[in-house]
Design goal:
The chain is mostly helical and 204 residues long. The protein is 76% helix and 0% strand.
Length: 204
C-alpha cells in the first residue's frame, strides 16, 4: 500500500512533503480551493502505511513534524492575510461594505473578539473559506494582534492535529487503503460542514 500511495508522487516519501504541505496550507488562505487538508491526510495515511510496512523513519512522514508544519503554516498564512487586510485601506473597506456576508462577518467577529469569544476563530478554521474570511476581516477591522494571534494559533494547531489524526488513525483502523483515505477526507469535509452550520446559527 505504501508503494501505491507513493504513486501520488515521490514527495510523499521525502522531506519535501513538509515543504509542499507548508506551501499548500499557507496559500489556501488566499486560494481556499487548494486541497491542503487532503494533502495533510494523504501524508498522514502514508505515515501509517509506512509504519505498518516497517519502513525506516526517513522513508515516511513524521506525524508530529507534519502536525507542527501544517499548524505553523496555517498561522503564518493567517498573519499574512491579516496584515494585508490591515493595510488595505479604504479600497478594502469599500469591498467589504459591498458584501453583506463580509460586513456581517466583520461585525460578528469584532463583537466576538471583544467579548473574548475567540472560539469563533477556531470554528471558522474548519469551515470552507472560513479561515480566509476571519483573517481578512480581523485585519480590515484593525483588531489587535493579541486578540487574534492566540486564537489563530489554537485554530491552526486544532485543524492540523485533527487532519493528521484522521489520516493516521483512519489508516490504523480501516487499513492502509484508498478507502481509509477517502473516509478520512469525508470526515474532514463533514467537520467543515458542521462548523459552517454552527457559524450560521450564531446570533448576529
Amino acid at each position: 500500500m505504501f508503494e501505491s500511495l507513493g504513486s501520488v508522487g515521490a514527495l510523499i516519501g521525502s522531506p519535501w512533503i513538509y515543504a509542499l504541505v507548508a506551501a499548500s496550507v499557507l496559500l489556501d488562505v488566499f486560494l481556499p480551493v487548494l486541497p491542503s487538508g487532503v494533502l495533510v491526510i494523504t501524508a498522514a495515511t502514508a505515515a501509517a502505511a509506512g509504519t505498518a510496512a516497517g519502513k525506516v523513519p526517513a522513508d515516511v512522514p513524521d506525524i508530529l513534524l507534519l502536525t507542527l508544519c501544517a499548524a505553523t503554516a496555517s498561522v503564518l498564512g493567517d498573519l499574512v492575510a491579516y496584515r494585508l487586510a490591515w493595510r488595505g485601506g479604504d479600497r478594502l473597506d469599500r469591498a467589504i461594505a459591498r458584501s453583506r456576508r463580509l460586513t456581517t462577518a466583520q461585525e460578528r467577529l469584532g463583537s466576538a473578539l471583544a467579548r473574548g469569544g475567540g472560539p469563533l476563530v477556531v470554528l471558522a478554521r474548519f469551515a470552507p473559506a472560513g479561515r480566509s474570511v476571519v483573517s481578512f476581516v480581523a485585519g480590515a477591522a484593525h483588531r489587535r494582534i493579541r486578540e487574534f494571534l492566540p486564537w489563530s494559533a489554537l485554530a491552526g494547531l486544532s485543524w492540523a492535529a485533527y487532519s493528521v489524526a484522521l489520516g493516521y488513525y483512519g489508516a490504523q483502523w480501516l487499513g492502509t487503503t484508498w478507502l481509509a483515505t477517502g473516509v478520512s477526507v469525508l470526515a474532514l469535509f463533514g467537520a467543515g460542514a458542521g462548523a459552517a452550520y454552527v457559524m450560521r446559527r450564531q446570533p448576529a
